[in-house]
Design a protein that fits this description.
Strand content: 35-45%
Shape: globular
Number of helices: 13
Length: 681
């Protein structure tokens, strides 16, 4: 691989003296009381650039960064990971720019602490096209899907930010360590450079970091937030629980979100809308066959909470000792100081009650970024966040964690599930809102974008949570096409699949689409392309291959299907000739099974699953007789289409005979039998 050329500098103070030392990729540089040792050396999957700072007495870092050439052409796509879960992440181009909150709304931004949600107060934003940055990792991908990867191997020394200039073809790598006091040895940079396919570089990165995902299974669930928001009650929760239980919906997790507590921060003080407390509800969830889940923002305390009123000294403060606002949610909120012993004791008690007394075994932990909002003299934001995740992992013993609103690297290997995008909205996208507020605002469009572009973390760092899909027709401003697009993107690119719908209100069609997501079959993404909002992807589920196309733009687009016979999901006998050109109106998506008509006994389609054929567990044959079994659960009736050899005229199954039918699509002949599968119970 190409060796990066590195040129950087450290600026620091020792007493009243400010010094500056430059360094390259392999050098030992001396300064007053300080030695810099840098190296660029082979590692398992590529090259690692290391920089250590050794000091004879305490120094204060003022700036630390290096610059390297950025291999870039007009055919390249550059992914830059956003600072935290909600930050927009995608493959960027020269026409893109990153905007901090608009200064035109200064008083409003100040009032609601809009700049506190991400990196706006400690990373430079140029406002210029092609001047972009990301945190912890990124890559450059060419049109042949060859990837040049760059990523930090350790963020405990401080978050690493990659600032790129697509116009100058340079990248500046900055360590978030300004005002850090160090003495002895400080391991500043450990940056991996590697090349290969996206799977190769991501596998190599996680291997070189020594990080593996915690044991957990892909699963489905329900959460109260995106229908009721904070307006929940015991009655609402139990009515929805009864609907899932009575209809035997095979979800795994039933989650109570924000709104049960008397105030954010007062987690053990349940409001009067839950007169019987939380333990009986958790037990009813468990008795209904689901895993009880609950939402917490463990480090947050809103302005009106008893926690903040009684213990203002427990919260992160500014230089004058005044609690430091973390954001404008609720009545405005602050974040607890992780290094206050009373805080740790309090949080351990909260977790012990919620997990062991109440009985909740899945914890959605939200707004976690706040704990590292201000660095300390002896700790960077990265170190604080990493230590916070280790603390939460220890507190949550006996439960699974869904991380949310968290810088991602510290969550690697520490949570079973993690949100990888912003909240979905009840509308598609508020573009005006997006231009004036932070990049982390709720947006269905951006949630889908992040789900697609962070899919490579799934199964390596944790199981990806793409946020909910919503199919209902009440209390929502998404069109049917938009809802179907969210449904498919979440089911393809995520493996924690939640909804917030009241399923009692579903129409027959809404219910059919919802049930088509069962059973959950993990997907393996082979490649993804985006052409100005038109996404195409090849993926597999089990041993079946699929093609997905999604027009997430505002204009009708056309797409060419692969050179194989296609079966369109959600259709009856919906075959499409190879290499057909299709037209997609705005916000529509389609999914196709890649058929193999020349291979006898292969699956040519099915009507029950959103991913035709994936509901089949086993298929065997002897002569013209077949045996099959479906995964559990499936709807009561499934129509299956089976490719048969040319010498078979009648297919025998379950004591019945099914005639072989013939269809010609272009030059492709399809011989198939149409079976109706009845669930055996």
């Amino acid at each position: 691989m190409t060796h990066p050329r590195i040129q950087g500098f450290l600026e620091y103070s020792c007493g009243d003296i400010i010094s500056r030392i430059t360094f390259g990729q392999n050098s030992t540089e001396n300064g007053p009381e300080t030695v810099l040792q840098s190296s660029l050396a082979p590692i398992g999957s590529g090259l690692v650039f290391s920089l250590d700072i050794d000091t004879a007495q305490e120094i204060v870092i003022r700036d630390l960064h290096f610059t390297t050439d950025l291999v870039n052409s007009r055919d390249n796509h550059i992914l830059l990971n956003g600072y935290q879960s909600w930050t927009d992440t995608k493959e960027f181009s020269r026409k893109d720019r990153m905007r901090p909150p608009s200064k035109l709304f200064g008083p409003l931004i100040k009032k609601h602490r809009v700049t506190r949600y991400a990196d706006y107060e400690f990373q430079p934003y140029s406002h210029k096209k092609g001047e972009l940055h990301g945190a912890s990792y990124g890559y450059i991908r060419d049109n042949s899907n060859h990837v040049r990867f760059f990523g930090s191997l350790d963020e405990k020394s401080g978050f690493t930010f990659f600032h790129v200039s697509l116009n100058k073809k340079t990248m500046t790598v900055r360590k978030d360590c300004a005002d850090l006091h160090i003495s002895g040895t400080y391991k500043a940079f450990r940056i991996l450079f590697s090349e290969g396919s996206i799977d190769e570089v991501m596998d190599g990165w996680f291997a070189d970091m020594g990080i593996t995902a915690l044991p957990a299974l892909p699963c489905t669930g329900w959460t109260s937030w995106y229908n009721y928001y904070q307006n929940i009650s015991e009655t609402i929760i139990l009515e929805n629980l009864a609907a899932f239980r009575d209809q035997k919906v095979p979800i795994t997790i039933f989650q109570i979100d924000d709104g049960y507590q008397s105030a954010v921060g007062d987690w053990l003080s349940v409001n009067d809308r839950f007169p019987n407390g939380m333990r009986p509800i958790a037990q009813q969830i468990l008795d209904s066959g689901f895993t009880p889940g609950i939402w917490l923002a463990p480090f947050a305390g809103e302005h009106t909470s008893a926690l903040f009123k009684n213990h203002p000294d427990w919260f992160i403060a500014d230089a004058d000792g005044i609690p430091f606002h973390t954001g404008g949610n609720w009545s405005g909120f602050y974040s607890l100081d992780l290094y206050n012993d009373d805080v740790r004791t309090y949080l351990r008690h909260v977790f012990d009650v919620v997990v062991h007394e109440w009985g909740f075994k899945v914890l959605k932990l939200d707004f976690l970024y706040g704990v590292c909002i201000k660095p300390r003299a002896d700790k960077t934001r990265g170190q604080i966040m990493c230590e916070a995740m280790e603390f939460l992992r220890d507190c949550a013993s006996g439960a699974h964690i869904i991380g949310c609103g968290v810088p991602l690297w510290p969550a690697f290997g520490k949570v079973e599930y993690c949100r990888i995008g912003t909240d979905v909205d009840l509308q598609w996208h508020n573009s005006l809102y997006g231009r004036i507020i932070h990049r982390e605002f709720p947006s269905t469009k951006l949630a889908l974008q992040n789900s697609i572009y962070r899919q490579h973390l799934d199964g390596r760092a944790f199981i990806n949570d793409p946020d909910v899909f919503l199919l209902r027709h009440t209390n929502i401003n998404l069109t049917d096409d938009q809802k179907r697009t969210v449904f498919y993107v979440n089911n393809i690119f995520g493996n924690l699949l939640f909804t917030s719908d009241d399923i009692r209100e579903y129409t027959d069609e809404e219910q059919r689409l919802y049930y088509s997501s069962f059973p959950l079959v993990p997907k393996n993404i082979h490649d993804v392309e985006c052409d100005d909002g038109l996404y195409t992807a090849h993926f597999s589920a089990g041993n079946l291959e699929y093609f997905f196309v999604s027009n997430q733009g505002t204009e009708t687009r056309s797409a060419r299907l692969p050179d194989r016979l296609q079966f369109r999901a959600g259709s009856d006998k919906g075959w499409v000739a190879p290499a057909s050109q299709i037209s997609l109106p705005p916000f529509t998506s389609e999914c196709y099974l890649q058929c193999m008509p020349d291979i006898p006994w292969s699956i040519a389609g099915s009507t029950a699953s959103a991913f035709p054929g994936s509901e089949i567990r086993t298929l065997s044959f002897e002569g013209n007789k077949i045996e099959l079994a479906l995964l559990d659960p499936v709807p009561a009736e499934v129509v299956l289409y089976i490719c048969v050899p040319k010498d078979v005229c009648v297919l025998r199954y379950a004591g019945s005979e099914f005639p072989v039918q013939r269809m010609l699509l272009g030059s492709t002949e399809l011989r198939y039998a149409e079976l109706v599968y009845q669930r055996p119970y």
